[in-house]
Design goal:
heterodimer, A: 114 residues, mainly beta, 0% helix, globular, B: 113 residues, six-stranded mixed β-sheet, five-stranded antiparallel β-sheet, 11 strands
C-alpha cells in the first residue's frame, strides 16, 4: 500500500466549530507532515512529526493542534479558525531515515471557514 | 534568505514538443533536489530526485539536470502530451532538521493538441 489517505475530502466549518482532519499511511514511514496550500501558491509546511514526536512547528497559530497517535496516523485539530484559514490541507509522509526522502502526499482536505 | 524560483508561472507548448522548466535557488547548499507534479485540487506527486553529485537523471520521458555551480535545475518532458498538463514544483530541503521541504511556486504547463 503506497497511499496516503485523508479524511474528510471537504470540510465547511464556522469560526466557533471544532473539527479534526485525519491522515493515515501504511508504508511504515516514520516522518509525517502537515502542509497548507492556498490557491496558486506552493504548499507551506506547518508541522513535522518524526518517530511520533513533533519535530518542527512552523510558528503555526495555536488554533491548529497536531496529534500523532501512532506511527500510521496523523490528526490536525481545528478550533476557532478564521476565514483566511480556508485552504487545501495536505498530509504527507516519508521514510524518515536514510539520506534522501521523497514525500508521499495525500489528496488533501479542502477546508472552508465561514 | 533562502529562495526557490521557478521563473515561468505558465508555459504553453504544442503536443510532441519538449517542455523545459527551470528552477533556480539561492542560499541553499542542497544535497539533492526533487520535482513534483500537482494536478488541480490534488496533492503533489513525486517525480524525480537528483543528488548533488549527479548531473542528469532520466525517467521515461522525463529528464532532470542539476548544476550546483549555477544553482539551477532544468526539468524536461520530451514528446509532451496533453496529459502532461499540470503544475510542476521544484523542492529543496531547508535548513531545518529532518526532511522538511521548501517548494517553489511551481510552473503551470499546458500542452495543447
Amino acid at each position: 500500500d503506497t497511499e496516503v489517505t485523508q479524511t474528510p475530502k471537504h470540510l465547511v466549518m464556522g469560526m466557533t466549530n471544532k473539527k479534526s482532519l485525519k491522515c493515515e499511511q501504511h508504508m511504515g514511514h516514520r516522518a509525517m507532515y502537515w502542509y497548507k496550500q492556498k490557491a496558486k501558491k506552493p504548499p507551506e509546511l506547518m508541522f513535522v512529526y518524526s518517530y511520533e514526536k513533533l519535530s518542527i512547528n512552523e510558528s503555526v497559530p495555536s488554533r491548529f493542534s497536531p496529534e500523532c497517535p501512532n506511527s500510521s496516523l496523523l490528526n490536525l485539530h481545528l478550533h476557532a479558525l478564521q476565514p483566511e484559514d480556508s485552504a487545501l490541507y495536505l498530509c504527507a509522509s516519508s521514510p524518515g531515515q536514510g539520506d534522501y526522502n521523497e514525500q508521499f502526499f495525500g489528496p488533501g482536505t479542502r477546508l472552508t471557514v465561514l | 534568505s533562502q529562495k526557490i524560483e521557478q521563473n515561468s508561472e505558465a508555459l504553453n507548448i504544442q503536443e510532441g514538443k519538449t517542455a523545459t522548466l527551470t528552477c533556480n535557488y539561492t542560499n541553499y547548499s542542497p544535497a539533492y533536489l526533487q520535482w513534483y507534479r500537482q494536478d488541480p485540487g490534488r496533492g503533489p506527486v513525486f517525480l524525480l530526485l537528483i543528488r548533488e553529485n549527479e548531473k542528469e537523471k532520466r525517467k521515461e520521458r522525463l529528464k532532470v539536470t542539476f548544476d550546483t555551480t549555477l544553482k539551477q535545475s532544468l526539468f524536461h518532458i520530451t514528446a509532451s502530451q496533453p496529459a502532461d498538463s499540470a503544475t510542476y514544483l521544484c523542492a529543496l530541503k531547508g535548513d531545518r532538521s529532518g526532511y522538511a521541504l521548501n517548494f517553489g511556486k511551481g510552473t503551470s504547463l499546458l500542452v495543447t493538441p
